[in-house]
Write a structure and sequence with these properties.
Length: about 70
């Protein structure tokens, strides 16, 4: 509504520029999700490698002395 109380045309949800902005944001959000997933997977792999490396080192305390 304008100042006089008459209805005016306002950009609707389906306005092309608004839809384009939403599309770009959706694509950016999907890209960010993909990058986060890749980063988390890399961290999981590195953690698994570190844990396996710790398992490969014998614990000196468990060896019999003598």
């Amino acid at each position: 509504m304008d100042r006089a109380g008459d209805e005016t045309d306002t950009p609707a949800f389906g306005h092309p520029a608004f839809r384009r902005d939403l599309t770009e944001l959706s694509e950016a959000a999907r890209d960010l999700d993909r990058r986060i997933d890749q980063h988390l997977e890399r961290l999981r792999r590195e953690r698994g490698q570190r844990l396996r490396a710790y398992d490969d080192i014998p614990d000196q305390r468990l060896r019999p002395s003598g």
